[in-house]
Amino acid sequence: MITIPRGNSLTLTIDICTSDGAPYSAAEGDTLIFTVKKFDGAPKLISKTIPMTSGASEVLLELEPSDTIDFKNGDYKFDVGLYSAGDFYTVILCDIFRVLPALSDMEDVT
Question: Which contiguous run of DSSP H or E holds residue 34?
Answer without folding.
Answer: strand 31-37
